[in-house]
Design a protein that fits this description.
The chain is α+β, with helices and mostly antiparallel strands. It has four domains: about 10-100, 2-Layer Sandwich (Uridine Diphospho-n-acetylenolpyruvylglucosamine Reductase, domain 2), CATH 3.30.43.10; about 100-220, Uridine Diphospho-n-acetylenolpyruvylglucosamine Reductase, domain 3, CATH 3.30.465; about 225-335, Alpha-Beta Plaits; about 340-425, Alpha-Beta Plaits (2-Layer Sandwich). Helices cover about 35% and strands about 20% of the residues. It contains 15 helices and 18 strands. It has helices spanning about 10-15, 55-65, 120-130, 145-150, 160, 195-200, 235-245, 260-270, 290-305, 320-330, 330-340, 355-370, 395-415, 430-435, 440-455, and strands at about 25, 50, 70-75, 90-95, 100-105, 110-115, 130-135, 170-175, 180-185, 210-215, 220, 225-230, 255-260, 280-290, 315, 345, 370-380, 385-390. The strands form four sheets. Strands 15-12-14-13-17-18-16 form a seven-stranded antiparallel beta sheet, sandwiched between helices. Helix 7 (about 235-245) runs antiparallel to helix 12 (about 355-370) and helix 12 (about 355-370) runs antiparallel to helix 13.
């Protein structure tokens, strides 16, 4: 595609649409942060950055961009890990962070309508102050809800409550040609034709730009308790998970971690973890509406863990204890980043009973390729986060080793009937692996859907299936 380079005439038109000139950045005024996301190694600056305030402005910009073959990349907080928000074709970058209003709380229908730039932590605080609950709990709390929807973010509570897709009732979106669509709504059930709403969720800004979202809420559980369960070996810990799931005492979260991740976290935070003496741990949380309900659930699971090899079961039944454990768990990624010069990640998801096998496989990769690899993840839903670390490798060595490790890991995930991404998406960095994992027919369908939504291929081009 031969895209138009932004020129003086384009800037004049954009200035007519965006009245406040302090919301337009050109050339040297563009912050370097806009050239990358948290992945870091995919970089490209846009020609112009625009911070729209409403659907009308986005609609006008998209209509003009479509008519003039100018690429447009939407962006939230830039916390992604696959280069999805990087404007690899230049053009316009739409920074949606100023569209950050909570528009409506409908307590009768238990919905919250928000703009895409509202942060996940702001939604959580707002609804919990009103004794309501938005269950999706991705690790990056400073991510925007628009970004969460665009990647169908999962998080630690997916075991019991599901992922972002399960809590999006309705969307307002702007298409590549500037048309505005209302998809879904406040209804609980909907079998009215193809679910265009669900097609937008997880599309990483390649099909449409989300300008409003109506989210499903639940009553806030009144009690939560966490268990920290040490095991001698990771395989023993992971092998216990299917028995926990079958017990029907479903935890809110089931996380796995290894000793080294805990030690890294302790060093990063400067705080001791409640226990770091064992090689592997399960971290579980239970919630409910009474202490008795929660105790009944966790006591049954504690018995199962001890039956299948747990060394002990530590109960964290105060806010202080729970915060200590979950703060450490939440710092794993930052601790890993702080320990190396650069990294890349594999966000595979495999069947739950294959998690231990995959993690053991990553250990063989460390030896085979002579490179440091860290891992942790969601044992309850099979989503693993594997981080390959550059350390002091020369650039050519790093690129060579990284490519070989990735090839091996994605091949193993496919062998185990897994998928390329559990929650971080495909973006730019992982699209080659997506193509290897899916059939030609599946890829052709995705490419066809993209063409229907975006005939001129201006909306976040070069991502996902391209």
């Amino acid at each position: 595609m031969n895209y138009k380079k932004i020129d003086k005439k384009d800037i004049e038109v954009i200035n007519e649409i965006i009245i406040d000139k302090d919301r337009i950045f050109i050339g040297e005024n563009i912050n370097e942060d806009y050239s990358h996301d948290e992945l870091g190694n995919v970089k490209e600056l846009p020609d112009i950055v625009i911070q729209p305030l409403n659907t009308y402005e986005i609609s006008k910009i998209m209509k003009y961009a479509n008519e003039n073959f100018i690429p447009v990349t939407p962006r939230g907080s830039g916390t992604g890990l696959v280069g999805a928000a990087v404007p690899i074709k230049g053009g316009i970058l739409l920074d949606l962070s100023k569209m950050n209003k909570i528009l409506e709380l409908d307590e009768e229908n238990l919905t919250l309508t928000v703009e895409p730039g509202v942060l996940l932590m702001e939604i959580t605080k707002y609804v919990e102050e009103r004794e309501l609950f938005y269950p999706p709990d991705p690790g990056e709390k400073t991510a925007t809800i628009g970004g969460n929807i665009n990647t169908n973010a999962g998080g630690m509570r997916a075991v019991k409550y599901g992922v972002t897709r399960d809590y999006v009732r309705g969307l307002e979106v702007v298409l590549a040609n500037g048309e505005v669509l209302q998809l879904g709504g406040k209804v609980v059930k909907n079998s009215s034709g193809y679910s265009l709403k669900d097609m937008i969720i997880g599309s990483e800004g390649t099909l449409a730009i989300i300008t409003k979202a109506t989210l499903k809420l639940l009553p806030l559980p009144k009690k939560a308790i966490s268990l920290l369960v040490p095991f001698e070996e990771l395989e023993d810990a992971i092998d216990t998970v299917p028995f926990i799931i079958k017990s029907k005492s479903i935890p809110t979260a089931i996380e796995f971690m290894q000793k080294q991740a805990i030690l890294d976290s302790e060093e990063f935070l400067g705080k001791k973890f409640p226990d770091n003496s064992s090689e592997a741990y399960l971290l579980l949380t239970f919630d409910g509406n009474s202490k008795e309900e929660v105790e009944k659930a966790y006591e049954k699971v504690a018995e199962i863990c001890l039956k299948y090899g747990a060394l002990d079961v530590y109960i964290s039944d105060t806010e202080e204890r729970q915060e200590s454990i979950w703060t450490a768990r939440g710092s794993f990624l930052e601790a890993i980043k702080a320990s190396t010069t650069e990294m890349d990640e594999v966000d595979v998801v495999v069947p739950r009973n294959k998690v231990a096998e995959f993690v053991k496989f990553t250990h063989t990769m460390e030896k085979k390729h002579d490179i440091r690899i860290k891992s942790f993840g969601h044992a309850g839903d099979g989503n693993l986060h594997i981080y390959i670390l550059k350390d002091n490798l020369e650039e050519d060595q790093w690129n060579s080793k990284l490519h070989k490790v990735m090839e091996d890991m994605y091949s193993k995930a496919k062998e185990l009937k897994g998928q390329v991404s559990g929650e971080h998406g495909i973006g730019y960095a992982k699209k080659g692996y997506l193509k290897q994992s899916l059939s030609n027919d599946a890829m052709a369908l995705m490419e066809g859907i993209k063409k229907v939504f975006d005939t001129n291929n201006i909306l976040n081009p070069g991502k996902v299936c391209q």
